[in-house]
Amino acid sequence: MGIEPYESALDDVPGAHPYPRSSRYAGIGIGVHVLPDGTEVRYAKRRLLPSLAEADDEVVPHVVGSGERVDQLGQRYFGEPGQWWRIADANPVLEPRELTAEPGVEIAVPLPGGFGGGLGGPGVGRG
Questions:
Q1: Is the pTM of this model over 0.85?
Q2: Fewest CB atoms less than 10 Å from the CB: which of 52, 79, 88, 116?
Q3: Going by DSSP bridges, is the β-strand pair 40-44/30-34 parallel, antiparallel, or unpaired?
Q4: Cα–chain-centroid distance for residue 80?
Q5: Which helix (H) or strand (E) holds 33?
Q6: Per-residue pLDDT tens for 39-61?
């Protein structure tokens, strides 16, 4: 028996860790910037992704339907609407709504655990 239920329970405990394990920022280091007056400002470090060209084996195509939204795609492919960011990461978009703005366009949907290592965390750099 693993510790999965215990780890999942921590997602609901404020302050248990900076980001839930389902967040794109899970596993990202936290940096500290010290202002001239000594005040510490905490921030999430950069989150790097693999290049889109390197991810071809880790994605499947999806043709956008009329009226489709990114949260619906997150639910359909990952079982949680908030996982839309996985799809955004695997496509050359700056704004998530660009993914579903035009019906008939083919977008990439990462396979579970694919493109960028699954849940949040650093990749090898998008270049």
A1: no
A2: 79
A3: antiparallel
A4: 12
A5: strand 30-34
A6: 988 887 877 666 767 666 778 99
